[in-house]
């Protein structure tokens, strides 16, 4: 009986020791990590210089309507009369008719500014982030259309499922206070 | 072909319709964007609009989540250990499923947080957000005190599976233990891939995330549906055989300060609770060990302890040998492989990744050097994670040849998910409830 009791005591002692060690370990981890933690969070963003506008952004987002949308850098735009982001490869006519447009949802608005310039504006609620216009604009135009994760919509998933599917590795984590990687030209 | 036609037509249209602005000329002014058409000088006083940049959602949510997590853990522990009410535990379970699952979309969760922690330990540039750290640590601390009360009613993945346990069948202990090895391998792999910055595989293969989002790829939906279907018969399959966080909780639960007690009183060995656990976590009392068996296992134990280092080293070696396969999970390694094939003329077509890389103008040498570092990480990671798996196998074998004496029916400290189903099977519990009712009636 006495031996049995000793055994139990020993086991309790071991268990308590281990318990204390685990708690200290967790505390240590917390300490070590909190030295590194900053209140500064990171969010996902597309590097427009790397994106090849493959179209995955429209379908791989965990949300029904992708958090990725097209953004227009007006400062880079040539305000062309014929925009290769706006018109399909063989437009029937150079006007706003739906059959002439490249965008499958008609999300780009074309408005006359002054001869011969036109402004192109993305109607974000319509855009689904397919990147068709981006491809067109990058291939033949100035590349002023590009895709960005819109942070009013993005859930900031731990692993962005578009990032996992992106063939060019354009997704990266950026600081939450500078959440966009915009294209721009610094013009005096 | 189509692309080619596109270019021809495009160029033709371009030349026909755009003589005014002088054609492609001002390329020099912008380094990265090919500025084929110089931005116009407007005469009509037109103001350039600037793109909108909506701010990220408030991180306030994260702090609210942390507070809710803490409250849910505290409540769950109280319900399991004091109230002993299955119904209340179930109610909390449903709440957690809706809050952490459907409302917060199952992200961030403690299971996935393993990866953030691993990455932040190994990557100097990655700092883990404070909320994520708390999500990782709080359930561990609670488990150290109260057993797996996180699994009982707080984890949304556990909750969704708990609701479909309808016709549980029992799984033999050896099979359960063997299948659980997968969870350890998964944990080791997840830590390795996270630490090397390759991928967050726990998030990528979370079977229930598509339910929480009510959308997602078909494959993941099917996987989730399979888990739920299997879960009708085999209680909580993800928890028992896959969950990498669960295996950490198991170990902490072994030494927790308090623990689920099947009976509120003394066990009378009526065997009524024997089959009440859908997760096979109830252990029957043991008979004394026959001396012959005892001596035999003593020898086996000595042998297994000698085997331990052998297993650790050989599994570590296998892990490091797998490097060519595992390292390809890292996008940069895949890119470098492709570039190498292109440079040596073995691949004719470029891929999106290699085209994008070449467009950045980065030097190939720099890329190769980067990949060498990553590969080294995978070599070490292979040794460590392989060694870890070897250690687990060895300890499992050792565990099999040690026998603990039990005089009562007990919940297995590691495997008990604290769901509280067994409570109502105990006649002592009923006696106690009756007493309590009477006491209330009298007063
Ligand atoms: S998946 Fe990547 S390459 Fe494709 S459109 Fe999105 S960011 Fe661009
Ligand atoms: S073409 Fe695609 S990316 Fe461009 S505006 Fe339309 S929907 Fe958006
Ligand atoms: S982080 Fe999530 S919500 Fe945001 S773009 Fe990626 S998949 Fe969509
Ligand atoms: S074992 Fe894992 S998935 Fe199951 S309840 Fe616990 S933490 Fe959640």
Question: How would you sum up this structure, described in words?
Answer:
- The complex is a heterodimer of chains A (188) and B (443).
- Chain A has 188 residues and is of the alpha+beta class.
- Chain A contains four helices and six strands.
- In chain A, the strands form three sheets. Chain A has a two-stranded antiparallel sheet.
- In chain A, a hairpin with a 2-residue loop joins strand 3 and strand 4.
- The mean pLDDT of chain A is 87.
- Chain B contains 19 helices and two strands.
- In chain B, helix 2 (60-83) runs antiparallel to helix 3, helix 5 (130-146) packs across helix 13 (244-254) and helix 14 runs antiparallel to helix 18.
- The radius of gyration of chain B is 29 Å and the shape is globular.
- Chain B has helices spanning 2-17, 60-83, 86-103, 110-122, 130-146, 149-153, 156-162, 173-195, 201-204, 209-213, 218-233, 237-242, 244-254, 291-321, 323-326, 331-343, 352-360, 364-400, 427-442; strands at 282-283, 410-411.
- By secondary structure, chain B is mainly alpha-helical.
Keywords:
heterodimer; A: 188 residues; alpha+beta; two-stranded antiparallel sheet; two-stranded antiparallel ribbon; 29% helix; B: 443 residues; mainly alpha; 2 domains; 62% helix; 1% strand; disordered N terminus; binds iron/sulfur cluster
């Amino acid at each position: 009986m006495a031996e049995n009791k000793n055994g139990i005591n020993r086991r309790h002692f071991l268990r308590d020791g281990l318990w204390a060690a685990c708690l200290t370990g967790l505390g240590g981890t917390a300490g070590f990590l909190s030295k590194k933690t900053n209140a500064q969070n990171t969010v996902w963003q597309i590097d427009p210089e790397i994106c090849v506008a493959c179209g995955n952004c429209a379908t791989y987002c965990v949300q029904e309507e992708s958090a990725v949308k097209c953004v227009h850098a007006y400062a880079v735009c040539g305000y062309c009369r014929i925009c290769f982001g706006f018109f399909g490869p063989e437009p029937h006519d150079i006007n706003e008719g739906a059959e002439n447009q490249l965008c499958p949802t008609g999300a780009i608005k074309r408005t006359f500014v002054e001869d011969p310039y036109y402004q192109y504006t993305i109607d974000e609620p319509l855009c689904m982030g397919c990147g068709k216009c981006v491809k067109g604009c990058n291939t033949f135009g100035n590349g002023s259309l590009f895709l960005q994760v819109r942070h009013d919509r993005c859930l900031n998933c731990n692993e962005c499922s578009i990032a996992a599917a992106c063939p060019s590795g354009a997704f990266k984590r950026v600081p939450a206070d500078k959440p966009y990687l915009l294209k721009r030209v610094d013009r005096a | 072909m189509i692309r080619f036609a596109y270019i021809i037509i495009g160029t033709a249209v371009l030349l026909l319709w755009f003589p005014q602005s002088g054609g492609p000329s001002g390329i020099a002014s912008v380094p990265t964007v090919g500025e084929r058409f110089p931005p116009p000088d407007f005469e009509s006083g037109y103001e350039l609009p600037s793109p909108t940049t909506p701010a990220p959602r408030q991180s306030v949510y994260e702090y609210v989540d942390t507070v809710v997590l803490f409250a849910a853990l505290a409540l769950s522990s109280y319900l399991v250990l004091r109230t002993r009410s299955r119904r209340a535990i179930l109610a909390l379970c449903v709440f957690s499923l809706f809050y952490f699952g459907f409302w917060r979309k199952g992200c961030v969760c403690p299971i996935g947080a393993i990866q953030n922690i691993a990455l932040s330990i190994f990557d100097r540039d990655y700092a883990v957000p404070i909320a994520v750290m708390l999500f990782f640590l709080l359930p561990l601390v609670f488990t150290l005190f109260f057993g797996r009360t996180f699994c009982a009613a707080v984890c949304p993945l556990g909750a969704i599976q708990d609701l479909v346990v309808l016709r549980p069948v029992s799984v033999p202990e050896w099979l359960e233990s063997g299948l659980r090895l997968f969870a350890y391998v998964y944990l080791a792999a997840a830590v390795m891939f996270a630490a090397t910055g390759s991928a967050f595989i726990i998030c990528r293969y979370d079977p229930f995330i598509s339910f929480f989002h009510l959308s997602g790829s078909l494959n993941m939906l099917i996987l989730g549906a399979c888990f739920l279907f299997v879960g009708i018969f085999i209680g909580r399959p993800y928890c028992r055989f896959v969950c990498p966080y669960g295996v950490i909780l198991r170990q902490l639960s072994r030494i927790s300060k308090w623990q689920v007690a099947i009976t509120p009183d003394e066990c009378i060995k009526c065997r009524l609770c024997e089959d009440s656990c859908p997760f096979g976590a109830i252990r029957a009392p043991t008979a004394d060990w026959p001396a012959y068996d005892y001596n035999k296992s003593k020898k086996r134990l000595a042998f297994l302890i000698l085997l331990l280092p052998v297993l650790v080293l050989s599994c570590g070696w296998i892990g490091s040998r797998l490097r060519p396969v595992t390292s390809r999970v890292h996008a940069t390694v895949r890119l470098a492989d492709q570039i190498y094939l292109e440079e040596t003329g073995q691949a004719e077509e470029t891929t999106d990744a290699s085209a994008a890389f070449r467009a950045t103008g980065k030097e190939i040498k720099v890329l190769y050097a980067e990949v060498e570092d990553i590969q080294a990480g995978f070599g070490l990671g292979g040794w460590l994670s392989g060694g870890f798996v070897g250690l687990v196998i060895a300890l499992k074998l050792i565990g099999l040849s040690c026998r603990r004496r039990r005089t009562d029916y007990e919940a297995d400290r590691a495997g008990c998910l604290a769901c509280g189903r067994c409570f109502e099977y105990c006649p002592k519990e009923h006696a106690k409830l009756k007493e309590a009712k009477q006491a209330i009636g009298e007063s």
